[in-house]
Design brief:
It is a single chain. This protein has one domain (about 10-95). It is mostly helical. The protein has five helices and no strands. Keywords: Membrane, Transmembrane, Transmembrane helix.
Length: about 100
């Protein structure tokens, strides 16, 4: 059996890892910016849900499901081409506002 350290999956939450494994197929059909946007939206939705923690709902509805959304969002948003799309967008935004690029 291969160690998770050797494959680079050590410490990744299961939802994050599962989504990250589907990215190559999604990237063939969708633009990198769309994957990044979906990842950020899922993470934001999970965080918003988690901020409404209600002890009466129980663990599944208050913690587990929001954490799955956060993990899935991080899996999408942490994809390298998606991160470079965000970096390029931020650089263009800075340049359009008259600030020098940090390149």
């Amino acid at each position: 059996m291969r160690s998770t350290h050797a494959s680079g999956t050590a410490g990744r939450p299961p939802a994050n890892f599962a989504v990250a494994m589907t990215i190559p197929r999604l990237a063939a059909r969708l633009h990198s910016a769309m994957l990044l946007l979906a990842g950020v939206a899922l993470t934001l939705a999970g965080m918003a849900w988690l901020s409404r923690l209600d002890p009466g709902v129980g663990y599944l509805g208050s913690v587990a499901l929001p954490m799955l959304l956060i993990g899935a969002g991080q899996g999408l948003a942490s994809w390298e081409p998606g991160a470079s799309v965000l970096r390029d967008w931020l650089l263009r935004l800075l340049e359009s506002r008259g600030r020098r690029s940090p390149r």
